[in-house]
Amino acid sequence: MYTATAGIVLPTTIIGSLPRPAWYTENLGRRDFREAMVDRFFREQYLDACSAYLRDQETAGIDIVTDGDCRFDADVGGHNWFSYPALRMDGFAGAHAYRTQGGRAGMAHKRGHILHDILEARVMPDLVGPVGRGTLHYTAVWKAAQRLTPRPVKFGTITPELVAMAVRDLHYKDIRKAIMAVSDALNEELTELANAGCPVIQMEETQIHLLAAKGLADKVLNPEFMVEVFNNTVRGLRGKTEIWCHTCWGNPAGQRIFDFQPSYLPAIPHLNRVDADVVTFETCSTGGAELEAICRGVADGKKVAIGVVDHHILQVETPAQVADIIRRALKHLPPERLVVSTDCGMGREGMSRRHAFHKMVSIVQGTNIVRRELGLPEAACLAADDRFSMVEDH
Ligand SMILES: [Zn+2]
To answer: Which of 8, 118, 188, 281: CA 20 to 30 A from 301?
Structure first.
């Protein structure tokens, strides 16, 4: 159900991660979040970093904020987005290098390519027993951020298929069973999170669009099965909170994972079957190439979140460019069904904090241009308020 986006026309948000402050040097490592929050050095840095992420979004004027993926360690290419669940859920143990596992998550890149470094850094536990929630502590992580801001905090999690596809399965010995076991455990975790009042939960990177686009789908792993997985993971949740389905074309170290431009078109009929209120699309990096097909293709009962800034590039999009993408989407979709976002997270060893900040300012300024044209209320953007400029006229 619509909670976070209810009552806001053209709400602005970011997908999730933000660049880490250089002074945020503490890491969770293999500790769980509640245990680490007893450590006063970790606790202070974590809460300061989380506050900085939230404050930057508030100063820009973003409506639906995130904790910047504050729980993840400072590692190569933001690997912890992959490994956080496997390091904490029941059923996983040890540490194993990715390339020897025959895992199916990620793309093979040869040594010398920056994405080869990402694969080398993918040292994951093995799946050795029945999967359980373990010490994910998603509710505590969300509460730690939500109590720092009155704005709705969106909580994002990696999808179960990617957790299972990135490890060596020594227990189920059946990739579908392993994925569904992680999915069931995540459903329990997310049910607790929704019951605690989290206003919006985002499932990050369903493999639906990737399998459809890569042409790698087979009888075992294919878009149809991934829709089943998605709907199993969020079962019962839409009656309690707002569910988002995030899709993009790659993020680690700010890299595109394809050497060609994949298309969303084969995935749209499948995405219409996911039990989600909002589906997000990477539309800025493609120059809005498939905007019409996306906006016309997504079923009426769902909102569409479009990316208006690109997480791969340092050039900050101008408010005029942001407004242009929004206007193009609004030719095919009423404003009540459109959400304005980034293509993907801006952290994970990508750009600097200042680049990310100014991209968020552009999102709000660009959305305000369109809001003005439509007679809608504008968001306050302190960051762009000229009264507080320190530049002096001569
Ligand atoms: Zn993404």
So the answer is: 188
